TrEMBL record:
Pfam families attached to this UniProt entry: ABC_tran (PF00005)
Keywords: ATP-binding, Nucleotide-binding, Transport
Protein name: ABC transporter related protein
Species lineage: Bacteria, Thermotogati, Deinococcota, Deinococci, Deinococcales
Coiled coil: none
Keyword Transferase: no
GO molecular function, one term: ATP hydrolysis activity
Keyword Disulfide bond: no
């Protein structure tokens, strides 16, 4: 089966500047894909090209096996922009009917889907309320209902939880997980890396219009190659034994603790024996997992932010 999104050397030039600069991406059907990068990295411009709203300056792009501008493809796309311009005079029901009709649903189907769509985003019972009376979080929920009302095969969510409280964020995560289970592909732009970590199967880090790194979370986060070792006494012999396995840094506030970053993940099984062979008592051995935030800062720090 073909992929949900494929780009090859995709490029967009504004006034002689390549804001998207040879971008290669693959998003599989039914996966949630996190698209991450600093301000000005070219994320929105890329999304607009994937939606057929901006014409590429070069390269290839295929969305759901076709051209993103094609009517048949567009009908299967959902989009929640970060800054949605809501028609504040409309009721939630009118707003969803309007967007369902734009997406090609009949008036009858649109009407039939609205209660379920509102319920799904936690707005049950609000159909007759005008959007002007909604809170920021309620508007974001309405925007999400709009993106999903026509049951798209691929949905783009740009910062979908920026206005939501912690309960709302968990609810949106559940919606994304349910979408994946239904086979819907989700393209998620978020600065909340913990959110991306919670729901995305794969992620790409972009900067200056190029993909710096892409892969599954497991590939990017890696197996535990760093450990906190608490042992007593921390003799020079113990230091030497651990330095044979990796880089050893003493903890600042704890005289019994060392941070060890292994040269090779296979050395993990040798840490405890190294401590014991130096006649020390092993008090704790805790694997350290990097998170997306530290990977992000590392990558972007090295390449410099675009903005
Ligand atoms: N229509 C336009 N005309 C000229 N320059 C543009 C246009 N749209 C975007 N740019 C420039 O392209 C670069 C990338 O912008 P883009 O909005 O794609 O970044 P982004 O990664 O989405 O950033 P953010 O996280 O801040 O939303 C920026 O330098 C921006 O000024």
């Amino acid at each position: 089966m073909d992929n949900a999104i494929e780009t090859h050397e995709l490029r967009k030039t504004y006034r002689g500047v390549n804001v998207v600069d040879g971008l290669n991406l693959t998003v599989r059907r039914g996966e949630a894909f996190g698209f991450l990068g600093p301000n000005g990295a070219g994320k929105s411009t890329t999304v607009k090209m994937l939606l057929g709203l901006v014409r590429p300056s070069g390269g290839d792009v295929r969305v759901l096996g076709g051209h993103p501008g094609a009517r048949a493809v567009r009908a299967q796309l959902g989009f929640l922009p970060e800054q949605f311009r809501f028609q504040t005079w409309m009721t939630a029901e009118e707003f969803l009917t309007f967007h369902a009709r734009l997406a090609g649903l009949s008036a009858h189907d649109a009407r039939a889907r609205i209660p379920g769509a509102l319920e799904r985003v936690g707005l049950a019972g609000r159909a007759r309320q005008t959007l002007g009376s909604f809170s920021k979080g309620m508007l974001q929920r309405a925007g999400l209902a709009q993106a999903l009302i026509h049951q798209p095969a691929l949905v783009f969510l740009d910062e979908p939880t920026s206005a939501l409280d912690p309960i709302g964020r968990v609810e949106v995560r559940e919606i994304i997980t349910a979408l994946k289970q239904d086979g819907t592909s989700v393209f998620l732009n978020s600065h909340l890396l913990s959110e991306v970590e919670a729901v995305c199967d794969r992620v790409a880090f972009v900067n200056r219009g190029r993909v710096l790194r892409a892969g599954t979370l497991r590939e990017l986060l890696g197996e535990g190659t760093a450990f906190v070792v608490r042992a007593r006494p921390l003799t020079p012999a113990l230091h030497r034994a651990l330095e044979a396995l990796g880089t050893v840094t003493p903890a600042v506030n704890d005289p019994d603790t060392l941070h060890v970053t292994l040269h090779d993940p296979a050395f993990a099984a040798r840490v405890a024996p190294a401590v014991l062979s130096a006649h020390a008592e092993l008090l704790a051995l805790v694997p350290q997992q990097p998170d997306l935030e530290s990977i992000f800062l590392n990558l972007i720090g090295r390449s410099g932010s675009a903005a």
